Every structure is written in structure tokens, then in C-alpha cells.
């Protein structure tokens, strides 16, 4: 109860002599400092809004324009061509002002309008410049004169010292491809997956759709594209993510691994202290927009930063039909789970962020707390890991009021969620590869009840001091935290966080619950569903160290195309057939852009695989490989520039549902399973890590679950020049999939490709090469 008393600013007692008022100086000080911090954040937010709103100009440029206009007036010239005089005539206070004052006010108003017009013109020019994408389709190393001029103009109009969101208003809208082009590309993508009769049937359906219903649906889609900043993003979030009723765990979440070969400290609480502090440092930079806008590597082209807005202070609220995402402007605490109990830990004291040592001290208090969980509390998190409808119903019935609502609100409004685990994970024991597989698997689902899956950012610290994250924009934030933890904050000789401890800090507050027997039964049912899903998951981490990006690039091959061709070869050897393959691409060249699909299984890639497996001559295989890799790069470019297939077809399908019309073509397209779902983890931020002097500070990347019950999920991480890590997932319930066997096929495929792609191998053999690599160094 001590925490509750400290939260009371004053108390009063009614006595016969009057009212006895007792003020708490400490509590009043806390309220005052919290208010100061809140107003500082508002002022910073307002200042950044002004700076971002006038970018690429600056607020100070307004003063320059005003002075310039006033100076020309004093030289008896009129740059406004009579507009200043017109403004002066219509000033509402003209009778109470002198003629000279009226002229100055009119000049200032004209200067402001001219300044705003210049800003609008500059942003419009930049938006048009950023709509140019021909540079991406030019051969590597051969830049046209037009592109050179374009680059120079982009540099001029991009301004200096942009904030995180400075380019948002200048990014172009996502274009709507023509129905004809999308249908054509779709038919090309399914040709290697169908026989002649199936392809003829699909062609007939596509032709009927294109000539009839397609044009009608396209009209509505173009109308939305004119009105909305992105015709895909809101529907994609609602219908693909929020309306899904299956468990989020495994099906939707993603994880990132800690360092593999180094443990910064043997003290669990210390690692948590530094990492939590680093997260809040990153959030502070995010709120102040001090993080530089993301760009395509090696270019001046900015990328959309809209997804950065909902990393922290964000939770997903379940609903019976659809979920919703709640985001709060600020939160000064985190929620910590340990041994079945939930704690609220304030990370701000007297308006300041606690030091890493103080956070460590508070975390250690939680670790040392021996109080038992409340009745039904220990596995309460299983509700968020099960099916969404039962959780929505339980939330409405058992968490809509009283102490349960207050505690649940506390969890959902936290900056992020932290789990302290007692189980050691990582590369341990006599079989480090098997322990790494178990580690990866546990990252995705844990114990099925030791986290709030609805929280968009989860950090977990286990007995081996590894931290894990499930988040949008996971890689950049995770890598920032790791780098800050090890290279900026550091630890003392004993392994503790640096700094001093204020022992008067209030203890973390344990959340209270009143769980009814009916709710406990639902917790048990949700846990059964989640546990079955977790037990069915087969996971394997392949840490491939025989060669990496450096050797691949010396063969004049795009690393991403190389890996994708290896995956096609491995899948064919594993299943003796080809499948619809999903590779995630990004559309962040456009405002509110998210992802697009690259259909990596093409007629060219299947022809190459068949030739290689059929024993064709090496020169033939090289030529086919070159054709397949160039086709893959072309598809990637089209996806990045808004000319992909799947998001357009998805939106056409949504429009058809709104109109209440059926399309056999769209229905069949959207029912096709992705048996091979792949994604590349963003490249580690090299400016944060010294890979030369500290090569041991490397992460293994991250992974996700399979999309199809009879398919594979493959996440790969091209790390430096000498390592490629693969995270492979599938389901035990499918007799045709095996993560370890598929990993072995991937390893063999990588060796087969590099062996005869290498410049030193030109004797007859079964492989191919690429003419040049894609500009985006993947």
C-alpha cells in the first residue's frame, strides 16, 4: 500500500475544530514535474510540427522573405505588382493605423503568402521529382544524363537537416496500375505452376474479368486513390491484420535475436536496465524527430516513416468482428511480467528518465519479490495468445470494469511490455545448433502465457540475458538498442550498470486481479489452443558461414537474387515441384507505403532449376540463371515502384465485396496458398557496429511462422560479407515439410550455385551467373 499512499497529493480529515489538511510535498513535486515534462513534450511536438510543415524551407526563411520585400518597398519598387496596395485597402483595422503601419502590415501579409506559395511550389516539385523511378531500371554503374540531372535536382529540393517526418508531405501517392498490366503479370506468375489446361482456364477467367468487372472495380479504386494518400494501406491493415480471428502468436508476430557469440553481462537485471534505458532514449529521439529519415541505401531517396509513429505506447484491442489499434501520445512506465505476476515500473522520477543503474535496481526488486500470483493471474496472458473472438468476449465480460479493467488498461497503455524469464536460452550445451533452434522457437511463442501478445513491442530477458523483440520496424530499433547497450552505456567491472542508485525510489507496483472461475476456464481453453499451435511449430536456424555477400557480389550477382534462386532450387529438391512463392518487398517510396509481394517463382527460375537438375551444360545453366536473376530483379523493381500484382488485386477484391458482386477470377487468386513465404531482415546498421574490431557483436536476425499449413516460412539475414543466416519454420502436422531437411537443402543449393558461379570455375558444370547486380544492395 506504500505506493498508493505516495500517489496521494493531499489528505484531509474533518474534526470538531474544522478541516485538518495535510499536503504531501513529495507528491505535489511529482505532479509539478510531470506537468513540466508534459508541457515540454507538447512544445517540442508543436515546434517539430511547424518545422516539418514548412519543410524544405525553414521558419527563419520567412523572416528573410519579409525583410527582402520590405527592402524593395523602401527602394520605391513594387515586387507585388499592386497586391500589397490591394491588401492595404482591405485591412479591417485600416482606420486605426497610420499609412506607414498599414503598408508594413500589408507587406508582411504579402510576404507570408509569397513564402507559403514558395513552400508549396518546392514541395510539389520535390513530390514530382520523387515520382521518377526510371533510375531504378537502369543498368548498374551506367547512369543516364536524365538521372544525373534528376539526382542534382532532388538534392537541391530536399533541403538540409530534415527531421524524421519532414518528407512525409512530399512523398508521392501510390499509383494504381492498370488492370491490363496487373492481369498480364499475374498470368506470367502462375504459368510455371499450372499445366496447359489449368493455365487456359485461368487465362479465360482473367480475360473475362479484364473486359467486364475489372474496369468497374478499377474506377472505384482510382477514385479512392485520388482521395486517400494510399489506396492500399488502410484496407491492408484492416482486412489482413485486424480482421483475422486466428491467434496472433505464430501467425502474425515476428522476433529478433540477441547477440550470438557474446554476453555483455552475466547479470540479468543489469542487461534489462541498460536495454530498457536504451529503448527510452530511442523513444525520446523518436518523439523529438531527431532520427534521420530512412533512405534507400546509397541514394538520396527518402522513405516513408509513417510506421514509426506507433512503435511505442501502442496496443491492439480485440473485438468480435475486428480488432483496433490504440496509440497513446506518452507513457512513463513499462509493465514487467515475472513468474506469473505483472508489475508496473515507472521509469521517470521527478520528471527525469531513470538511469540504467536505477532501472537495474528496480528490476532486481521484481526478481527478488517472492509474492505469489493472484488467483488466475499466472497464465492470464494466454487469453491474448488464443483465438481473438473468445478473448474479445472475455475482455468485455470480465475486464470491462473494476480492478481488472484498471490493471488491463495499465498493461495496454504501457510504453512496452517486458518479460523476465528464468529459463536459459541460446547456443548452449554440447549441441549448440539444437539449442539455437529451441531458442528461436521460444522467441516466437514463449510459454504461450508469459507475454501480452496485443502489445506491439515486447522485450524479453531470460536467464541467459538475451532480449527478444516483436515489433513493427523491428530491425532498426533492435539494433539501435543493442548498440547503445554495449557501446555507449556499458557495464562496470562487476557487470552492473554504471551510475548510482537512489534507494528511495518507490517499489514497482504489483497489479491486482479478480479472476472469476468462468474466466479461468476461458484462460485454460485459450492456453490449450496456443499450446497446440506452439507444439506444432518446427523451427530451424541455419547459420551459414561458408561464404556470404562478398563472394556472391564478386560473381556479379545480386545477393538477394542469389538467395532466392537457392530457395527455389532447395524447394524443388525437397518437394519435387514448384510453388507460389512470396517475397516481401517494400513500397515506402510512397506515402504510407507498406509492403508488396514479389512472386519469386517465375518461368525463368523454374527453367533454370530444371536445367540444373537435368544435367544441362554449365554454360546453358549460367545463361538461364542470368535470365532468372534479372527477371527477379525486374519484379522487385516493379514491386517497389507501385507496379506489383497482389496489393492491386487485393484492393479490387475489397471493392467487389463492398459492391456485393462476385468475381471468380479474384476469388481464385486470393485463395491460392503461399507455400514458400520469404523475407529478408533489413541489413544491420553498419554505422552502429564496428564489425572490424568487434566481429563477435553480431545478431542472428529474426524469423516468423509459416503462412501455409503445408509450407515453409523463411527469413534470411545477409550479415556482412561472410555470413547468411536462415530462420526456417514449418509445421510438424504436415508430413511433407521438415525444417531441418529444408535447411540442409538450402545449404547444398548455396554451395552448388556458388561453386560454378565463381570466376575460377568455368569448366562444364551445372550453374549460372548474373550480368549485374541490383542497385539496392540487399
UniProtKB/TrEMBL annotation:
InterPro entries: Carn_acyl_trans (IPR000542), CAT-like_dom_sf (IPR023213), Cho/carn_acyl_trans (IPR039551), Cho/carn_acyl_trans_2 (IPR042231), CPT_N (IPR032476). It is a multi-pass membrane protein. Pathway: Lipid metabolism; fatty acid beta-oxidation. Residues 1-47 form the Carnitine O-palmitoyltransferase N-terminal domain. It is found in: Mitochondrion outer membrane. It catalyses: (R)-carnitine + hexadecanoyl-CoA = O-hexadecanoyl-(R)-carnitine + CoA. Belongs to the carnitine/choline acetyltransferase family. The gene is LOC118287970. Its EC number is 2.3.1.21. It comes from the Eukaryota. The keyword DNA-binding does not apply. Residues 174-747 form the Choline/carnitine acyltransferase domain. GO terms for cellular component: mitochondrial outer membrane. It is an enzyme of class 2 (transferase). Pfam families: Carn_acyltransf, CPT_N. This is carnitine O-palmitoyltransferase. One of its GO terms (molecular function) is carnitine O-palmitoyltransferase activity. SUPFAM superfamilies: CoA-dependent acyltransferases. The active site is at 466 (proton acceptor). GO terms for biological process: carnitine metabolic process; fatty acid beta-oxidation; long-chain fatty acid transport. Keywords: Acyltransferase, Fatty acid metabolism, Lipid metabolism, Membrane, Mitochondrion, Transferase, Transmembrane, Transmembrane helix, Transport. The chain crosses the membrane at residues 50-74, 103-126.
Amino acid at each position: 500500500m506504500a505506493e498508493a499512499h505516495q500517489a496521494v497529493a493531499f489528505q484531509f480529515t474533518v474534526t470538531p475544530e474544522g478541516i485538518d489538511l495535510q499536503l504531501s510535498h513529495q507528491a505535489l513535486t511529482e505532479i509539478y514535474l510531470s506537468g513540466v515534462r508534459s508541457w515540454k513534450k507538447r512544445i517540442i511536438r508543436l515546434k517539430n510540427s511547424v518545422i516539418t510543415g514548412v519543410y524544405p524551407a525553414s521558419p527563419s526563411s520567412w523572416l528573410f522573405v519579409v525583410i527582402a520585400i520590405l527592402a524593395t518597398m523602401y527602394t520605391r519598387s513594387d515586387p507585388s505588382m499592386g497586391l500589397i496596395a490591394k491588401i492595404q485597402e482591405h485591412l479591417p483595422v485600416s482606420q486605426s493605423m497610420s499609412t506607414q503601419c498599414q503598408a508594413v502590415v500589408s507587406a508582411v501579409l504579402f510576404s507570408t503568402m509569397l513564402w507559403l506559395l514558395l513552400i508549396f511550389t518546392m514541395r510539389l516539385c520535390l513530390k514530382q521529382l520523387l515520382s521518377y523511378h526510371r533510375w531504378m531500371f537502369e543498368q548498374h554503374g551506367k547512369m543516364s544524363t536524365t538521372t544525373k540531372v534528376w539526382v542534382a535536382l532532388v538534392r537541391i529540393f530536399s533541403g538540409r537537416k530534415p527531421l524524421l517526418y519532414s518528407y512525409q508531405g512530399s512523398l508521392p501517392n501510390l499509383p494504381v496500375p492498370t488492370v491490363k498490366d496487373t492481369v498480364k503479370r499475374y498470368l506470367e506468375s502462375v504459368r510455371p505452376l499450372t499445366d496447359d489446361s489449368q493455365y487456359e482456364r485461368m487465362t479465360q477467367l482473367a480475360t473475362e474479368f479484364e473486359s467486364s468487372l475489372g474496369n468497374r472495380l478499377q474506377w472505384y479504386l482510382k477514385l479512392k486513390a485520388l482521395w486517400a494518400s494510399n489506396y492500399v494501406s488502410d484496407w491492408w491493415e484492416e482486412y489482413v491484420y485486424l480482421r483475422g480471428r486466428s491467434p496472433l502468436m505464430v501467425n502474425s508476430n515476428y522476433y529478433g535475436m540477441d547477440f550470438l557469440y557474446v554476453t555483455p553481462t552475466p547479470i540479468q537485471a543489469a542487461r534489462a536496465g541498460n536495454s530498457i534505458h536504451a529503448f527510452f532514449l530511442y523513444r525520446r529521439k523518436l518523439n523529438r524527430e531527431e532520427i534521420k529519415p530512412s533512405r534507400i541505401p546509397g541514394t538520396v531517396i527518402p522513405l516513408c516513416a509513417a510506421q514509426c509513429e506507433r512503435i511505442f505506447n501502442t496496443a491492439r484491442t480485440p473485438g468480435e468482428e475486428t480488432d483496433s489499434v490504440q496509440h497513446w501520445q506518452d507513457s512513463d512506465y513499462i509493465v514487467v511480467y515475472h513468474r506469473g505476476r505483472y508489475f508496473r515500473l515507472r521509469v521517470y522520477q521527478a520528471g527525469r528518465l531513470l538511469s540504467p543503474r536505477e532501472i537495474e535496481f528496480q528490476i532486481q526488486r521484481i526478481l527478488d519479490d517472492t509474492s505469489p500470483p493472484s488467483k488466475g493471474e499466472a497464465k492470464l496472458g494466454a487469453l491474448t495468445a488464443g483465438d481473438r473472438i473468445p478473448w474479445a468476449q472475455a475482455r468485455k465480460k470480465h475486464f470491462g470494469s473494476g480492478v481488472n479493467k484498471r490493471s488491463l488498461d495499465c498493461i495496454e497503455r504501457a510504453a512496452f511490455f517486458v518479460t523476465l524469464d528464468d529459463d536459459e536460452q541460446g547456443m548452449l550445451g554440447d549441441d549448440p545448433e539444437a539449442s539455437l533452434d529451441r531458442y528461436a522457437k521460444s522467441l516466437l511463442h514463449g510459454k504461450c502465457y508469459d507475454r501480452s501478445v496485443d502489445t506491439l513491442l515486447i522485450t524479453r530477458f531470460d536467464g541467459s540475458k538475451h532480449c527478444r523483440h516483436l515489433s513493427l520496424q523491428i530491425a532498426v530499433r533492435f539494433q539501435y538498442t543493442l548498440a547503445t547497450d554495449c557501446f555507449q552505456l556499458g557495464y562496470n567491472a562487476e557487470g552492473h550498470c554504471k551510475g548510482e542508485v537512489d534507494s528511495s525510489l518507490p517499489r514497482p507496483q504489483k497489479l491486482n486481479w479478480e479472476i472469476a472461475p468462468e474466466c479461468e476456464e476461458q484462460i485454460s481453453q485459450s492456453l490449450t489452443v496456443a499450446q497446440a499451435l506452439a507444439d506444432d511449430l518446427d523451427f530451424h536456424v541455419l547459420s551459414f558461414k561458408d561464404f556470404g555477400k562478398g563472394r556472391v557480389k564478386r560473381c556479379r550477382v545480386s545477393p538477394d537474387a542469389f538467395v532466392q534462386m537457392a530457395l527455389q532450387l532447395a524447394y524443388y529438391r525437397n518437394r519435387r515441384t514448384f510453388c507460389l512463392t512470396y517475397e516481401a518487398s517494400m513500397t515506402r517510396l510512397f506515402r504510407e507505403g507498406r509492403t508488396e509481394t514479389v512472386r519469386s517463382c517465375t518461368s525463368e527460375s523454374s527453367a533454370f532449376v530444371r536445367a540444373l537438375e537435368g544435367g544441362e551444360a554449365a554454360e546453358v545453366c549460367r545463361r538461364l540463371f542470368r535470365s532468372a536473376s534479372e527477371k527477379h530483379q525486374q519484379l522487385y523493381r516493379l514491386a517497389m515502384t507501385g507496379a506489383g500484382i497482389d496489393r492491386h488485386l487485393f484492393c479490387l477484391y475489397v471493392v467487389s465485396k463492398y459492391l456485393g458482386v462476385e468475381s471468380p477470377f479474384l476469388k481464385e487468386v486470393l485463395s491460392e496458398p503461399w507455400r514458400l513465404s520469404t523475407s529478408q531482415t533489413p541489413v544491420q546498421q553498419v554505422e552502429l557496429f564496428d564489425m572490424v574490431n568487434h566481429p563477435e557483436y553480431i545478431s542472428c536476425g529474426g524469423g516468423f511462422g509459416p503462412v501455409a499449413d503445408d509450407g515453409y516460412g523463411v527469413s534470411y539475414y545477409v550479415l556482412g560479407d561472410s555470413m547468411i543466416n536462415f530462420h526456417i519454420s514449418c509445421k510438424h502436422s504436415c508430413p511433407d515439410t521438415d525444417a531441418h531437411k529444408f535447411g540442409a537443402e538450402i545449404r547444398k543449393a548455396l554451395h552448388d550455385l556458388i561453386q560454378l558461379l565463381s570466376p575460377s570455375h568455368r569448366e562444364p558444370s551445372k550453374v549460372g551467373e548474373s550480368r549485374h547486380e541490383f542497385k539496392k544492395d540487399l
